[in-house]
Amino acid sequence: SLCAPVSAIASSATKVIFPDRKYVQVSQNERTKGVKHLVDSTPNLVSLPSLYALPSPNCPKPATNTSIPVIDLSGLDGSDDQRRLLTIKEIGSACEEWGFFQVKNHGVRISLMEEMVKAVEEFFNLPFEEKNKYASNDVMDPVRYGTGLNTPAKHTPLLLLHVARKYLEEVYALALTLAGAISESLGLNKDYIEISLGQGCQIVANNYYPPCPEPDRTLGITPHSDHGGLTILVQNDVDGLQIKHGEDWVAVRHVPGTFVVNLGDYLEHRGVVNKEKTRISIAVGHGPEQTATVAPAAPLIGDKGRAQFTPIMYKDYMKIQQSSVVRGKTPLESILINGDTMSAV
Ligand code: OGA
Ligand code: NI
């Protein structure tokens, strides 16, 4: 059946004004072609196909009007020690209070950020058949393309993205700068996190959210946390990212030229869509090498303390994190000692 139209849009008056608006039904099979394909092939789409509608408690309500810290990283350049320490403190507090912050004067060329967003847009503009060559449901595949809510397959082919190599290099340098500042803010050696990551890995998620006729009935990306240590996200100038702060969803307002940084696990976030504009975002996660054992930092536990998390190999953790069963809750709970969920291990 056709999905139930929202009454305001479906009123006969609206139909007279927009005589060529379309209601469509999407099969599971067509779904794999993605929402961009749907929107491109259905001009004047009037309502959200029921396949994409979320149960109403999960639908977005207006976000609260708070904003996350915007931190100027030029303070870390070493020219002024006092300012450097203040910036480290600022990063430390943002991590503690929010786990999310925006950074400016971060050292990544603005032109490269723009080029990267453009390259991702070009990739998504390829015909479905071309993109589908990269489709996979194996979360450990290095290069994957996919679609839909809560899909594990959303990583696009870097092979096609000629700017990605340069971009990831500069983003990696930023990740190390931040890792140094965070280590120091915790009273650890500056290179503690960097050394713990070993060779490390970068995981890139390129997201494309076309305009949606009924943004109140769905989400671009459902609530989840990222599995890396540090996610560094760039977006075009369309807002959509929301983060969970206490019980509230807080909208991140885009500040041109900045990245949104988050600390990975335990920090839920989601993406809302809008009626008018396509939103593109590129999230680069930074984690340890696949075979590294992840455990609480020894110096922070001390002699008398007790670790609260079971050590786990990072690639096993990634599998838990990416599994659709646990995704949306926090996968950290599954390795919490004395926690009562070990469901996905
Ligand atoms: C992600 C993500 C949010 C966004 O890719 O992990 O959370 O703003 N994206 O697109
Ligand atoms: Ni995310």
UniProtKB/TrEMBL annotation:
Keywords in alphabetical order: Dioxygenase, Iron, Metal-binding, Oxidoreductase
Q: Which SUPFAM superfamilies match?
A: Clavaminate synthase-like
Query: Fe2OG dioxygenase domain location, by residue?
Result: 197-288
Which terms in the Gene Ontology molecular function aspect does this entry carry? dioxygenase activity; metal ion binding
Give the InterPro entries listed for this entry.
DIOX_N, IPNS-like_FE2OG_OXY, IPNS-like_sf, Oxoglu/Fe-dep_dioxygenase_dom, Plant_2OG-oxidoreductases
Q: Which domain of life is it from?
A: Eukaryota
- Cited PROSITE patterns: FE2OG_OXY
- Which family, according to UniProt? Belongs to the iron/ascorbate-dependent oxidoreductase family.
State what protein this is by name. Answer: Non-hem dioxygenase N-terminal domain
Q: Which organism is it from?
A: Dillenia turbinata
